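Possible regression after last week's pipeline update?

I re-ran a chain I had predicted before the update to compare outputs. Posting the input and the new output here so someone can diff against the archived version. Not blocking, just want to make sure nothing changed silently.
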Amino acid sequence: MFTLGITGTLGAGKGTVVSYLIEKKGFIHFSVRGYLAEELTRRGMPVNRDTLTAIGNSLRAKHGSSFIIEELFIRAQKERRNCVIESIRTPGEVEALRKEKGFYLLAVDADPRLRYKRIRNRNSETDQVSFQTFIQNEEREMHSDDPNKQNLAACIKQADHVINNSGNIDRLHQQIEVFLNTVGYNLNNK
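New output (post-update):
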């Protein structure tokens, strides 16, 4: 079983990578955002970037920095299929998954202005913000000394491969295939 973790900057195209893996490679998807949204809904709280961040940080502080990812990995193991877990945000999550056979971490990045344009176009409830707020949100999530808080920079640094998604969709798909070849997926799953 291959387990691919996806990390990266806001609006870089992590979801587009996940869609490709699902549609073209048959991966099953487990989403940190989905897990946190379920928890917020269960508690009767609104789902937005601030509440998603707060509940994630709270769960990690209470149960450990890798708690959410470990919960998703348990779900993935039950499926016994290749899976993709999106979005890895703390070094503890990377560390926990590194213990699992067949785990690889992919990071996705792109130019900040392009990423902002993309989030505005996808029009989700968490994306209707100014460019300044977008940058502030990313800065808040980029670095932290607290192991229970998001540290995207550290996760990206630990990635097995980094895709720069500043090009078109065909270029992104080519880069995904390069990554899959690099980790031996295409050789083992033909």
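Follow-up from reviewer: compared with the archived run. The radius of gyration is 16 Å. Marking as no regression found.
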